[in-house]
Design brief:
Blueprint (H helix, E strand, L loop, with lengths): L1 H10 L2 H21 L6 H23 L6 H23 L1 H27 L4 H12 L3
C-alpha cells in the first residue's frame, strides 16, 4: 500500500505537473504551427499523459536492471510511443497513419526518453536542487 501511495505522490508533485502542462502546451502549439497531418490536440493529450504515467517507470526499469519487468516495460513503451498512435489514427485518418507512422516513431521515442529523464527524479523541486548542488560540490 505504501508503494501505491509513493507512486501517487510522485504523479501529483507540482513541478512534475507544471512540466507536463508546459509539454502539453508546446505540443498543442506545435500542432497549429507545423500543420502535420497526424498532429492534433487529442493525440497530443493522449501521448503526453501516457508518457507522464509510464516514461519514468520505463527508464527506472532499465536503470535498475529489473530484468523480469522488461517485457512489460517494452510493451508500455511501445504502446505509448506507437500503439496508441496507431489506434487513434486508424479510426480517425488511416491515410495520415500510413503517411506519417514511420516519421512519428523516432520522434515520439526520443520525446518519451526525454520525458523519462525529466520525470525520473523522485522528490520535490527543492530536494532536486539540493541533490544537484550536493553532486556538483566536489567539482
Amino acid at each position: 500500500m505504501s508503494n501505491i501511495k509513493a507512486c501517487v505522490t510522485e504523479y501529483f508533485r507540482p513541478w512534475k505537473l507544471i512540466t507536463l502542462a508546459i509539454g502539453i502546451a508546446l505540443l498543442i502549439l506545435g500542432s497549429f504551427y507545423y500543420k502535420a497531418p497526424d498532429w492534433d490536440i487529442p493525440i497530443s493529450l493522449i501521448m503526453a499523459i501516457l508518457a507522464y504515467l509510464t516514461a519514468p517507470w520505463s527508464l527506472r526499469v532499465i536503470l535498475e536492471r529489473k530484468w523480469r519487468l522488461w517485457p512489460a516495460m517494452l510493451f508500455v513503451t511501445w504502446f505509448t510511443v506507437d500503439g496508441c498512435y496507431v489506434i487513434y489514427w486508424h479510426f480517425n485518418d488511416p491515410a495520415a497513419l500510413a503517411m506519417m507512422r514511420a516519421a512519428n516513431f523516432p520522434a515520439s521515442l526520443s520525446l518519451y526518453g526525454l520525458c523519462g529523464i525529466i520525470w525520473l527524479y523522485q522528490g520535490n523541486f527543492r530536494q532536486l536542487f539540493s541533490d544537484i548542488k550536493h553532486y556538483l560540490a566536489p567539482l
